[in-house]
Amino acid sequence: MAELAGWLAAFLLANLLVALVRVARGPTQADRMLAALLFGTTGVALLLLLAEAQAEPALIDAALVFALLAAIAGAAFAQRAWREEGGDERR
Question: Rounded to an integer, what distance in angstroms lies between the CA atom of residue 6 and that of residue 49?
């Protein structure tokens, strides 16, 4: 199990490197936000792997907090992008 967790962690870290390239290149703000959400999702997966490997339940709590923050950040970005496009008629 520990070897599999190591391989999965390496794969997730490689995934983070690809997301870092996407953040740097863009081309749009939406692409950058999706890459940031990928950082959050991958971070949650890494924390869950570590929690399982080290039998540390506090890491599961941290992963849940990061997942919640990523969802809030995505919703806030979508709301801001909607307003900038003129889709919000309440102004």
Answer: 9
- Mean pLDDT for the chain? 84
Q: In which element (H, E) is residue 77 found?
A: helix 57-84
Tokens of 80: 């801001």
Q: Determine the 3-state secondary structure of 55 from DSSP.
A: coil
Q: Is the confidence at residue 89, as pLDDT, over 70? A: no
Regarding pTM above 0.85, the answer is no
Q: Is 86 left (phi over 0), alpha (psi -120 to 50) or beta?
A: left
CA 82-65-80 angle, to 5 degrees, is 10
